[in-house]
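subagent[fold] <- orchestrator: predict structure for attached chain, return tokens only, no commentary.
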Amino acid sequence: MKRKSKRKKSRIGKLLLFLVVIGLGVLTFFFFQKEIFDTLKPAVKKKEILPEKKEILLYFSDPEEEYLIGEKRRIVKKGEVGEEAKEAVKELIKGPRGKLIPTLPARTELLGLEVRRDGVGKVNFSRALSKDHPGGSSAEMMTVYSIVNSLTHNFPEIKRVQILIEGKPAETIAGHLSLRQPIPAKPDLIRRE
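subagent[fold] -> orchestrator:
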């Protein structure tokens, strides 16, 4: 009989302890809810601040310099074509992640990008675009159309691309392709994989 009584008292004691702990938790939350929410607010806001991403397709050269092949990238969605196009060109300068061939010299810098109302995207590069270019007509064509096709494919507002070097319209990058006029896309250079 005494054992049953001790077990019953032990269960009642545990139940009372559990109820006291729950009660203290509820009271603490009730009295300090403002402080608790103020502490948790930055963590919740940080999660909301994570930038939305947009998937784009950048074009790099195949090893034979005959075709452009698309490589997917994710850029921050900014809601403004010019800003997103700048991010795309910066990614193009970084080069491919896989086995494709870079189309822009590594030291090339993007100095600016403007999208005009008539659909011309004016892309301003540093002198390294032409100075460090390996040369050759195929390489030059891959460079020009990787820029043009990447921009026109991902941003329908851009219909043609004007390539500038140090703020001035470029005659050519390596002497083979005229850049005097804004250039439209050349989809026949794109190979689908």
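orchestrator: received. Logging for downstream: The chain has a mean pLDDT of 89. The beta strands are 53-61, 68-76, 110-115, 120-125, 160-165, 168-169, 183-184.
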